[in-house]
Amino acid sequence: MAATKNPRPCSIADTLALVGEKYSLLVLREVCLGNGRFDQLVRNIGAPRDILATRLRRLVDAGVLTKRVYSERPQRFEYRPTQAGIELEPVLMTLMAWGDRHLRQDGERPMVLEHACGHPLVPVVTCEACGSAVHHGDLTPHPQSPGWTVTGPTPA
User: Does one domain contain both 18 and 72?
Assistant: First the structure.
């Protein structure tokens, strides 16, 4: 079967087009940790300055980060998450937890997030309606894009 010219409409693909580039989620990690100055970002991420500047510009243009002047002479900026950026923070937490479980051979966690209750955070996806933890077997996909089923495009 030949590949379709138009892939499945997908919010995951749209989101990855914005934050899936190398360093973009690491920028968001640092900004959410309160490290929003360019030199802090360069040091903590290890990205080349030109690439980092491009990622920052793109995240600001998309409304994920805001940019504000903190020094006039020389003019310097710091970046902070917008509401949209803050809403991506659970994605970072979930990626971090997955990496801790599946990629850390030594069992050591490079970062622990402490919840307001005083315990280390273990993120869990829950259903907003019933409050239950979500598991793969609990989900039933319902494609909403015309011409698409769960298995792919409908025959023409």
Answer: yes
